[in-house]
Amino acid sequence: MRFSFSILALVIFLTGSLSARDFTVMVYNVENLFDVDGVALYGDYRQGDEGEYGEGPLLNKLEGIRIALAALNNGDGPEIILFQEFELDRTPYDTPSAEAFLKETKGQDLAAILDQRSNLPSELLLLKYLDDHGMGPYHIGQPDPVKSESHPPHKNVVFSKFPLNFVRQRDSYNARDLVIAGIDVDGHELIVLNNHWKSGASNARTEPIRVQNARVVRAELEAILLRNPSADVIIAGDFNCYYNHSAVFQDLEETAVNDVLGANGHEVRMVQQGSKNLYNLWFESDPAERGSEVWRGYWGTLMQMVITPGLYDNRGIQYLDNSFDRLAIPGENVDTRWGRPISWSNYGGGAGFSDHLPIYARFRSIPGEGSDGFVELDNPSDEPLSANRPKMDFARMNRMAVPRVGVLVAMSPEERVREVGELFQVDAELVSNRPARIRIGDLELEVYSPIRDLRDQINSMQPGDRLRCFADLDVFRGRLQVVVRDPSWIYRD
């Protein structure tokens, strides 16, 4: 009987070890996760007077990240996360390894740890917070701050529940170091290239810098594919350009993502023998749903995930067809009215998530040696590039349900920051112009519009003139402001 039980247990073990495993890869620009060592390139993140960045905002920031991660895998979080905008540590001395730090601090509260050790880097702070909430443990892949040639404010970081075979970095001109990590998934190597290219997607003058950033990535990818043409590779991150950049900006001679990297919408080519195609997973989504952030009333696709043909064969790691999506949680990381990302703000003790939505996709490890052939595709994309950019319909609203901006007066700063992104009715006299400001009770608010004609119209008003409009609440450089985002928001008498 005991012998039979042992044989049965062995069969179950072997069957489980040879079964396919599904896992999630997320890409998430968290918008400025800084530590609290008091040394930061951004003034907003240097500790100082009460109300500025410190332990309280940090813990709120970590909780927001945890909420986003916990939305996947039934609260367990993604197995692999490619993060952007962690602070590049300015005090990288005597930093313990991830494993040693978790072992050393097990059972200790993070707030209490911060009281004693304020020099811990951002990645260890998040690692500990997630571990305390039952998420992980994660291995960490990141650039060495000593080896970083340009020392940018931020770094790209990889969190993985699977072991890391290697981590290396490549300097990228006027951008954050490219981080390349080899991840051991059930004996198969998945290679991820974590990017954050030069900012300014809407500025054609910055595209040549992104072209240089893409050349670094392309060279690294070519070296990987030279060694193994069927390598399973994910190129992802904040590219600071659109998935269809060459169609949106047709006057550009060369674009980073479409011309240099070569990412496109031809999924049908991914299952052709010997293919060198690179497929951008935004083409998995309905064109109207493509967007990870909003800029001046239009959705952008700065967050991107591009994959190689190796992820379509029946060996190693395989992409699960049509599993790509953006993560939007109404009332948490997006507003409930239009579904826009709720940005992070240090105001009022810190609240919000990020100005970028995370994106994610599902993958599978194939047992053993796998087999010949490719995955069977369901409605594969063969979409050419077009200038598609979904527009926000800011005119769509129930005007009768919009509260007056005066309700903010009785609120504390902690309460006001939770109203960021919400719409209000404004009916107040200007106390100044250029920039325009209104005062309601003891609360002074700057008035702004991302639309130049509206901005000029508002700024041309004189102190004492009455402004009647709809506007949503925002924070700019630590100050509250109301933002008029559509011509229909101005009252017409």
Automatic annotation (TrEMBL):
Gene Ontology MF annotations: catalytic activity
All residue ranges annotated as the Endonuclease/exonuclease/phosphatase domain in the record: 167-362
InterPro entries named among the record's database cross-references: Endo/exonu/phosph_ase_sf, Endo/exonuclease/phosphatase
Domain of life assignment: Bacteria
Protein name per its UniProtKB record: Endonuclease/exonuclease/phosphatase domain-containing protein
